[in-house]
Amino acid sequence: MDDDTLVIAGVELGSRLILGTGGAPSLQVIDETLRASGTAMCTVAMRRVDAATSGTILDVIDSHGVRVLPNTAGCRTAREAVRTAQLAREALETDWVKLEVVADERTLLPDPIELLDAAESLVAQGFRVLPYTNDDPVLARRLQQAGCVAVMPLGSPIGTGLGIGNPHNIELIVSEAAVPVILDAGIGTASDAALAMELGCDGVLLASAVTRAQDPLAMAEAMALAVRAGRLAYRAGRIPKRFHAQASSPTEGMALL
Amino acid sequence: MRIELNGQAREISSGTTVGALLLAETGSARGSAAVVDGEVVPRSTWDSHELRDGQVVELITAVQGG
Asked: Residue A98 and residue A43: Cα distance in Å, rounded?
């Protein structure tokens, strides 16, 4: 590993790709994609204990030495999200939480009012809050001011695979962020993940793009490479875009033919 | 005595603690937690927190999720 490490809340993560485990057809697929993605952190949801469930996803995650990040998926209000985070803290003994407070089932877009309210409560209770947020630079700023340890703007709505709808807003968020920016949601394929990193994001969080791909294992590897390639390109500094062509071969010294 | 566990009536012996119920239902102390009558029970009190007749208990655990 080089010196270009993602650090969130003082913790070094060995990969800039964070994997969501939702949507995988089996624990075996999660096992394989965790390995292929090289991720250092993956998300889980909190739900009622089901006696019919055999085998636990935590055993799979633990076997890879990957950090677990509980989410508050499904919560519609700050109150529900705070309660879910508290449960996750007792269950998983982590004060990290991916904070999700969505407005409705059709769009799954974050409810900004409830989100900020929940973030402020959780920060006050000592949580390390990583909020899933709209691609709104002002809301991202407010979440940072509230004490969130990262901001995670969406590229497009959860599960759509529509990629990054407003690259300019993502760049704006990155340009003024004092905490890591993780592009979360909307990634469809490897080029979307590479673009997120080229825009200056510090990491990418994706689930469906891998777990619902025809070949999840291959897509996990593709995403790992895309995130790395995008990060390298961002750090390398791309050439400015030009309106007209500019020759790369010398224009002087042409033979008289 | 009778409690409501994850939306269903359930008979448990009196004196059952949150910790014992979690272990019985999940087989592990890792990855699960309990809400009793709307309050999250801290892990540090699981083994001393005895359930009472008629209480509403939610047991939750980590599952796949984005």
From this structure: 8
A13-37: pLDDT as tens digits: 999 999 999 888 888 999 999 999 9
Is some CB atom of chain A closer than 8 A to the CB atom of B61? yes
Query: What burial letters (b/e) apply to A7-30, b meaning 16+ CB within 10 Å?
Result: ebeeeebebbbbbbbbbbeebebb
Q: Do B62 and B31 touch, CB atoms closer than 8 A?
A: yes
A207 vs B6, B63, B66: nearest CB: B66
Residues A162, A181 contacting (CB under 8 angstroms): no
B63–A47 C-beta distance less than 8 A: yes
Report how far residue A131's alpha carbon sits from residue A115's, in angstroms, rounded to the nearest whole number.
Answer: 8
| Total-model pTM | 0.91
Contacting residues for A222 by C-beta, under 8 A, at least 6 apart: A189, A190
Phi, psi of A71 (to 5 degrees): -115, 170
Residue A235 scores a pLDDT above 60? yes
Residues of A annotated as catalytic (active site), given as ranges: 98
